[in-house]
DNA sequence: TCTTGACTCTCACCTTACGTCATAGACTAT
DNA sequence: ATAGTCTATGACGTAAGGTGAGAGTCAAGA
């Protein structure tokens, strides 16, 4: 039977000696035995248990719960995991909010310094071209466009600003992703995230789904049209940028008209 | 000049009195003045500073840094925000990994755990009719059906019951809506709400989207087929009821096979 | 055998940003 | 005057260890 000293076990598992002391004290991981001089000696079983402990610690379980899980065979592990999962999701949402706030703060502070003028936003997309897109969209989606505009008008000014910010970020992500890898699923993810944004502002309102579907359909209209996606018979590397701008223009128009 | 007591300020800002004590002690927010009895009195300026403090606290800055930011006009705020942002992004990535790990662990633990008798679920739909629907569905959606079944088997018994209840309610709403107005958008809303339910039970799992899409497609299959929607060349008033039962049967079968 | 250096033991205080008493004094309304 | 509310300070507790202090233990070289 092989034994490990505190330091050996600590090194093996990548934790500190103090950590093992704490686990011993907490009854979470007792040494297999002690020498006459009270040195802690751990065996294979303890090593395995430590692996388990570290696994749950990775999942951010508090030590008390880890002990409960490992010691009580009746413990409803699955329920605990699910509970923990929802807690993590809450944290993640909070982090997302924080990141958005930080982004806004940064861009607010940089106002004037790096601010995008509307001209820059539409850069490469001349007014008449943009107008043409809008006409095309309204011709194909007339009613939907109107209903979308109604829904948008129901937002408060503050929400309107937030919505614009989030959508802008989403489009920028799309453009950046497709710039780095034109074959990626970025468009799908973009639309999926668009759903998320829409839901956030209109909740379960059935208008949300209509709006999102209409938007997705509008994007699809461009995506399906080789006049936009291809250049000389090959994928147009500028398509992502174009799509971003076109959709942005469409939304801006819908939001403000 | 208006002054606020500790409690007034605390209530205004939504923090505890103790928090204000701590901030005073830390030199982060000193009261404008003190009464003879040493009561802390805060003015407008302090209120504004408190807003600032809470803003940075929202961004998870430690109090020491907040003090540095607010007291040192030379502090490079934008750099600090950017630095902080990347830290938050790291945390968020870690959370995502954790959530994935939890999902994997849950499904690993639930493997093979769940079985159920199909008999009680066929209620209201004769066996041979039901079997025919299922055959049609699997013929058209073979692979998707199998994947869906996998996902469904991973639910706990408790969740399974809840899912059944919510889906049943959703179908009943559909049937009732279409009964009153066969031309309504009820099917779209039904599918949209189905998305919501699915997300609730599978959360971040990407299977959720596949499941929902497949379900939507299956419904569309019936909706597009005049054999079901029409009767003697006119809209079939029983279609909603039929669809409800067919979809119900399909899901039940997927849940139990 | 003695000494040196590495290892180990337990005790105990420190960390964040407060929460939660405890005790004592201050203010307000009846 | 008295009850009820508000305030002050001080002290202890939290999670999961970090960082020593002081003392004992072990293996190896001189």
Protein chain pair with the most extensive contact, residues per chain: A-B, 31 and 34 residues
The radius of gyration computed from the alpha-carbon positions of chain A, rounded to a whole number of angstroms, is: 28 Å
What order do the SSEs of chain A take from the amino end to the carboxyl end, as H and E? HHEEHHHHHHHHHEEH
Which structural class is indicated by helix and strand composition of chain A?
mainly alpha
Q: Low-confidence spans of chain A: pLDDT under 50, at least 5 residues? A: 111-130, 203-211, 252-257
Average pLDDT confidence of chain A is: 63
Helix content of chain A: over 70%
* Strand segment count of chain A: 4
Q: Please state roughly what percent of the residues of chain A sit in beta strands, choosing from under 5%, 5-15%, 15-25%, 25-35%, 35-45% or over 45%.
A: under 5%
**Largest beta sheet of chain A: what is the strand line-up?**
1-2
List the quaternary state of the chains.
homodimer
Q: What is the number of independent domains of chain A?
A: 3
Major β-sheet of chain A, in short? 2 strands, antiparallel
User: What global shape of chain A is seen?
Assistant: elongated
Please report the number of helical segments of chain A: 12
Distance between the termini of chain A: 79 Å
């Amino acid at each position: 039977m092989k034994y490990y000293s505190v330091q050996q076990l600590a090194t093996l598992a990548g934790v500190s000696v103090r950590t093992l002391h704490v686990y011993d004290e907490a009854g979470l991981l007792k040494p297999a035995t002690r020498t006459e001089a009270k040195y802690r000696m751990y065996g294979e079983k303890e090593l395995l248990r430590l692996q388990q402990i570290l696994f749950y610690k990775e999942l951010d379980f508090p030590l008390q719960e880890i002990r409960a899980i490992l010691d009580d065979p009746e413990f409803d592990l699955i329920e605990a995991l699910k509970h923990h999962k929802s807690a993590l999701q809450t944290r993640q949402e909070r982090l997302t909010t924080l990141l958005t706030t930080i982004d806004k703060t940064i861009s607010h502070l940089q106002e004037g310094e790096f601010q995008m003028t509307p001209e820059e936003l539409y850069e490469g997309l001349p007014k008449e071209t943009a107008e043409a897109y809008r006409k095309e969209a309204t011709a194909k989606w007339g009613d939907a466009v109107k209903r979308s505009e109604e829904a948008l008008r129901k937002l408060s000014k503050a929400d309107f600003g937030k919505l614009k910010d989030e959508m802008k970020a989403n489009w920028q992500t799309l453009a950046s992703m497709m710039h780095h890898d034109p074959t990626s699923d970025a468009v799908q993810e973009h639309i999926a995230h668009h759903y998320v944004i829409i839901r956030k502002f209109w909740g379960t309102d059935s208008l949300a789904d209509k709006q999102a579907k209409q938007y997705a359909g509008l994007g699809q209209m461009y995506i399906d049209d080789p006049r936009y996606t291809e250049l000389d018979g090959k994928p147009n590397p500028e398509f992502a940028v174009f799509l971003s701008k076109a959709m942005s223009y469409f939304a801006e128009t819908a939001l403000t008209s």
